[in-house]
Amino acid sequence: GEDGMVPTQIPPTVVQGLANTLVATTNRADLQPALVNELSTYPLPEHLKAQALQRSELADKLLQSLGEDSLGVPPAARPWLEMLDQSIAEAIIRDPSFIAQPRNPLRVLIDELDHLGMLLPSRGLQEGEQRAATVVRSLLQAALKTDKDHPQRFSDALFHAHHLAKHLSQRYQRNVEGVVAASNGLHRLKWAQNKVNVELNTRYTGHQIPEIVPRLLQLCWQAYLTSDALDDDSGEVGETQPWLTLDALIQLLDGQPHNRQEQAPSRETVFSNIEWGLDHAAFDAIAKDKFLTGLRQRLFVLRTSRDNLVPFVPFVIDAPGDFDSEEI
Fold it and tell me: What is the DSSP string of 160-210?
């Protein structure tokens, strides 16, 4: 291994040559001899050749894993990642720690394509989904034609992949809520949504709340509160755990809660309750994990949102009428 060794700069021409060889060699049994042969064409010290060969084999293992089921890469994402084989191989041969650098632009792009792939079916794409997949492919092709050293090389592809994933995530969340509508009856669902929005507006209009709260509501907590209202035969809203957890989160992060408690629940309890709610109400696992990472940072590291409060924006309320029926 390279543990304890000073990272060595492998010349760019060698990096490119080895990556070319790695990608072009289809029979894995021929790979090591082909890499050794490629290395023999460069006047490098033996220890540097050994490191370059080791990194090339590491790159090969990762590329093989990305193309198989071992890393859980969704089938829809694999064609895009195959397009990046050369870039990924070069990145690893250049610096094996690349894959552990969460802010590396290529690493971020891989994560975003993986996320987008999770939101697309493995086969039978609908017209809009097919269009999205084609756009991503075109942007990757364009990026691969640009200068390898350009710092913004993958920025367009990353931007569009991120926004397509966000759009599909929201669409699937709406589809999940549509299943709830079908099982509970659209009339009853609309009534519950209205009750929840009225209660949110009553509690928080004019209040400053942590900016993470609107994101939580949009991600799924509003739908979770609606589901809670549907489960409560009394038709009352406001004093169940999802509501108490939301108010406690606002208080813990120095916003203006509806009902300030002298003995607020612990940060660990609030985090655990939100994590449980997301597990049951959030469709998009990647978006859920990203949110929980940010929430963990806000609750346990920064411990406040005093510098990041926003005014609560009231929800639109449907006109009274059908939803007030006592028969519901």
Answer: HHHHHHHHHHHHHHHHHHHHHHHHH-HHHHHHHHHHHHHHHHHHHTT-EEE
| 324: pLDDT strictly greater than 60 | no
Count the neighbouring beta carbons within 10 Å of the beta carbon of residue 150. 10
Start-to-end C-alpha separation, the chain: 67
Considering only CA atoms, which of 146, 161, 65 is closest in space to residue 110?
161
pLDDT for the residue 131: 79
pLDDT over threshold 70, residue 124: no
Query: 209 Cβ partners below 8 Å, 6+ apart?
Result: 250, 255, 256, 309, 310, 311, 312
Label residue 3 left, alpha or beta by phi (over 0 means left) and psi (-120 to 50 means alpha): beta
pLDDT in tens, 79-112: 999 999 999 999 999 998 888 887 888 888 988 8
How far apart are the C-alpha atoms of 64 and 114, rounded to whole Å?
15
Return d(Cα 32, Cα 61) in angstroms, integer. 12
CA separation for the pair 219, 30 (Å, rounded): 49
Name the residue type at position 270: V
| Phi, psi torsion values for 309, nearest 5 degrees | -95, 150
**C-beta separation of 275 from 236 below 8 A:** no
| Distant-in-sequence, close-in-space partners of 150: CB < 8 Å, separation ≥ 6 | none
- 223-247 confidence digits (pLDDT tens): 889 888 887 655 566 778 899 999 9
User: By CB neighbour count within 10 A (0-12 exposed, 13-18 middle, 19+ buried), where does 16 fall?
Assistant: middle
Nearest-angstrom CA–CA distance, 16 and 142: 19
For residue 287, the surrounding DSSP H or E stretch is helix 285-296
